[in-house]
Amino acid sequence: MPERSSLTVNGRSYRWMDRPLVVVCVDGCEFDYIHKAVAAGVAPFLGRMLASGAAFEADCVVPSFTNPNNLSIVTGVPPSVHGICGNYFYDREAGAEVMMNDPKYLRVGTILAAFAAAGAKVAVVTAKDKLRALLGKDLAGTCFSAEKADAATLALVGRPPPSVYSADLSEFVFAAGVKLMQARRPDLMYLSTTDYVQHKAAPGSAAANDFYAMMDGYLAQLDALGATLSLTADHGMNDKFGADGRPNAIYLQDLLDEWLGQGAARVILPITDPYVVHHGALGSFATVYLPETADVRATIDRLRGVEGVQLALSNAEACARFELPPDRLGDIVVVSGKNAVLGSSRSRHDLSGLDAPLRSHGGISEQAVPLMFNRRTAGIPGKPRMRNFDILDVALNHLQA
Ligand SMILES: [Zn+2]
């Protein structure tokens, strides 16, 4: 491997890797999943990482959604800098809801692309295709999704194409990571799974332990291949249903229609994506675009009085607190509490695909995520809190030899 000097990307500097570095983003993972799988004896390698590597509790980006966090991890900066704050925003001038999956919405380069440009062999494997183009922006390297694996990828991995709604989709990512490490030994590899299992299964449940046992086996193989392993999550996950087992949802569009008139306000749920079966597009973060005539402060005060609403903030307050891009959010940001979700109109949510009580994410209650390494750390500057997007800084700048 060529020994090179450090790179500076988006204002942070990263040393060249001393051995292959694997960064894993386990979608929807919380420490509780890992601790319970280790306690059940099904994840011995993760147990070793906890005992003889390094582990921190870190905060993810709010909205605690998949894309904002994956992009923060690979750019090292918050959404106020990289621009991706969800799957959707509303373009007032065009009068249209715009999907942010296109790389043109990403405002900075990635650390992955910078290392590739400097001569590192870089590989990216993602479960869902929605992330592939964003993660692979300007990347001269390998980049594919399990969801849309082509014939060459299927041949490399040696597994059949997985279903998008299955634990297999994530297993395909890990299996591909191991095959790539054996065949091409990338200097830097980013693996990003899907939260299909976490949306259905609570920590310590049989399905969850099976998933972490599967993951454990592949991580052990990557470790045995001599890689530095680093692991974090894009967000946690919580139960979002009531005593009757039905989603505990606040339908914001219905409320605002009642308060301000039919269709006067527009609620955007940035969790909405083409894969809504397992969460019904219900998450704990929403943004509201108001008509010019509306009283923003009065509407915020009224929203704060709604049971289950944890926070209602103006655009400026939310962007300052959560480091978000003001031009891609509405006039108000609403965050629901640990066991509540936000919807638009009741009639617009198709919940027929929910075959288990709703678990979801998006709020502050899903902000705590693991940050783990298979090596001990050294010289981490004292910080008020670690972030999941510090992972490449720690992995490249602060691990013991
Ligand atoms: Zn996710």
Walk me through the structure.
Helices cover 31% and strands 20% of the residues. The mean pLDDT is 94. With 401 residues, the protein is of the alpha/beta class. It binds zinc ion. Residues 27-28, 66, 195, 234-235 line the site of zinc ion (ZN).
Quick summary:
By secondary structure, this protein is α/β, with parallel strands linked by helices. The chain has 14 helices and 20 strands.
- How many helices? The count is 14
Number of strands: 20
Query: Shape, please?
Result: globular
Q: Roughly what fraction of the amino acids lie in strands?
A: 15-25%
Largest pleated sheet: 8 strands, mixed
Mean pLDDT: 94
Query: Could you name the ranges where pLDDT drops below 50 across 5 or more consecutive residues?
Result: none
Overall structural class, as computed from helix and strand content, comes to alpha/beta
| Strand order within the widest beta sheet | 8-7-9-3-10-19-4-20
**First-last Cα distance:** 16 Å
Rg computed from alpha carbons, rounded to a whole number of angstroms: 21 Å
Helix content: 25-40%
The hetero molecules present are: zinc ion
